[in-house]
């Protein structure tokens, strides 16, 4: 009798589990959470702590110095200059990469015979290691008037050696590598624009530009959001390309937050100061991402 | 029709201009030093393959290719397994805990890895994993999980629940329902996850430089970096090394390009 009740009760509870508690156990997420906590969360949290110390990177000697690292940052001309460079570089990359990406997407979205090949060509640099792309461009940008870009254009610019040009040259090679990335995301957005809307607009007498402005552009908003976010985060964090092409030079002309924090840690042994700069970088990225998500999501419409 | 033709001409011209660095790369890799200094822009005349043989052995590309392959493949397997399981929970759970966990994972997309770079270096050293494949695999799995979870969770949320429910009514556990029914339905997004992570892991430079430098387990970008530093003035040789170093991932791309481009865009759309 008892055993029968137990059996019945367990059958009921089993059935209830099947139908009502229909979400999987949190144990599904446990292994990922452990690895993520170990590799990302714990180190980042420890980094935040280090940002308030004077740790040199060697031994256990460290003491808390409060906001001293951040105060030092404000008085550090080179580091403050690097913030300006980081922002300029990011704005240039975001504007040009997405502008070019959009034009390429509109171009290859038309019924061209070579469209498949063109997509492959424009996208190919995305898959190559940024360090290798930087080495290639270091030669393309060489000052010799008979070689590289100078030879092609008949110029004699010292692309990476002239402090007033170098930052824009870095932006140029980043745009070359990633314009195809923006293009592909815009193409995905263009596929979501219904043909009927264009036809209707055409019947109403809208020209090419008007159709772009009033039909295509509003529907591209999600692609714009993703592109702006990815290129902004990428621009703010940019490291490999600068490390390989100029290492912050000439002078401090291409020094960014990433290169300064790298040097403070591994050249000068100021690990506490370095992580303070990394924390500033993290706050920049977080702030910009939040603002973008907030403003751009608001203007998204659906077809 | 005429306008399409005109557009085609413009786009092809843009592509030709865009390919100039690639032309430089390939033509210089096929030239001897005399040709490079005398006629840097001209086609190689006559072309020579000498640079490639020298670059292959001087950059130790054979062992690096093996290291890169081992690290990339193992990280991808772990990312897909851990990422899809976690996302199944995150996409299906209705609780504050579940939402909090999801936001916690997304935080990882925004955090610059430099913030945790030094503590992580210490941790990896304490675990005895500096200079090992296992250390790099652990690192890539952790660092790429946020993006992987983001892609999988978005996809699973759009997937009807009925498939899994049906299996569970037939007596399957959550685990069986996921592995037998849901996971196969995730194929498109798994392709995207695979491609995006493969490109990132294969090409990553700074972390392997930091964690593997001098260990004998260097990946391709690290070996090429050291090689370029050593032969910096011999452009033919350096460019042959760059061509060889980039070739594996470019070949994979060319074979899979239709899926790559589709995957990139659809993955990022969701």
UniProtKB/TrEMBL annotation, chain A:
Q: Does the keyword Transport apply?
A: yes
Annotated ranges, domain ABC transmembrane type-1: 83-292
Among CDD domains, the record links this protein to: TM_PBP2
What compartments host this protein?
Answer: Cell membrane
Q: What is its main location?
A: membrane
Question: Keywords of this protein's UniProt record, alphabetized?
Answer: Cell membrane, Membrane, Transmembrane, Transmembrane helix, Transport
Task: Tell me how this protein sits in the membrane.
Answer: Multi-pass membrane protein
UniProt-recorded name of the protein? Raffinose/stachyose/melibiose transport system permease protein
From TrEMBL, chain B:
Domain of life here?
Bacteria
* Topology within the bilayer: Multi-pass membrane protein
One short Pfam name that applies is BPD_transp_1
Which keywords does UniProt give here? Answer: Cell membrane, Membrane, Transmembrane, Transmembrane helix, Transport
> Main localization of the protein?
membrane
Indicate the transmembrane segments per the record: 5-26, 70-90, 97-117, 137-160, 181-202, 237-256
Question: Which compartments does it reside in?
Answer: Cell membrane
| Residue intervals of the ABC transmembrane type-1 domain | 65-256
For this chain, the family text in UniProt reads: Belongs to the binding-protein-dependent transport system permease family.
- The molecule here is called Raffinose/stachyose/melibiose transport system permease protein
Its source organism is: Nonomuraea angiospora
